[in-house]
Amino acid sequence: MTSVSEKRRRAARDRHAKKRGVTLPKFSEGNFVLAATATVEQAIHDEGGHLVEALRSIRLSPDTHRWEILIKWYISGDVDFVFGTKPEAWFESCDIEPVGPGYITANGRLNESNPSFYVLNNARVFGSSGNGTVYLGRPWRPYSRVVLQNSELSDVIHPDGWLQWHKDNNTANVYYKEFNNTGVGAATDKRVSFSGVLDAAVPIPRILGDNYTSEWYIDTKFL
């Protein structure tokens, strides 16, 4: 039996695909080039380099330090549905739809030597779970590092923005930043004390390296 949440997820996937002009195949499992080291519950792509799917969660490279790029994905979930411990990841122009109260990111950067860093650029965050029911993220590990920039945040985002993993969670080394976001959920005046606002956007070479445009698996027309 297909659950109500599954039906809604599939409907959202199909709406997104129609808007993007992508025809979805019947199968939807695997890992593909623009997220070459990502492990996802469900993902698809087409030959044009355009990735789109309703994802329950993305687990980013638990055993590698490679960087990753996800372009124009539709990502949906509820609790910690973008998570991982080691990769540097750039999310470009993704539609992110929380399907219930929860947290979007759970970066697991363990220490200073760990390169893990998530940057969500030009994202659109929206949902129907209610005003202020979703947090941008919470620190899975003590050096958790996430930036949300140039993005549209709806009123589904809680005014605090970010949340501790648990009450005694040490946030002294957490790096949670925002820059140039818009929408009701983008107001930073009530954000938690362990987050902040950047003076400039994180440049894409910071994550992907100076020569990222020459990589065969990156289609720059989607950037």
Straight-line distance between termini: 39 Å
CATH hierarchy: architecture: 3 Solenoid
Counting H and I runs of at least 4 residues, what is the number of helices? 2
The number of domains is: 1
Protein structure class: mainly beta
Helix content: under 10%
Order of helices and strands: HEEEEEEEEEEEEEH
What are the low-pLDDT stretches, counting only 5+ consecutive residues below 50?
1-6, 19-57, 61-65
Radius of gyration: 16 Å
- CATH fold-level label: Pectate Lyase C-like
Tell me the name of the CATH homologous superfamily. Answer: Single-stranded right-handed beta-helix, Pectin lyase-like
Highest CATH level, the class: Mainly Beta
Main sheet? 7 strands, mixed
Write down the overall mean pLDDT: 77
Shape: globular
The number of strands is: 13
Q: Classify the beta-strand content into a percent band.
A: 25-35%
InterPro entries: Pectin_lyas_fold (IPR012334), Pectin_lyase_fold/virulence (IPR011050), Pectinesterase_Asp_AS (IPR033131), Pectinesterase_cat (IPR000070)
Organism: Phytophthora fragariae
Domain Pectinesterase catalytic: 74-197
Region (Disordered): 1-20
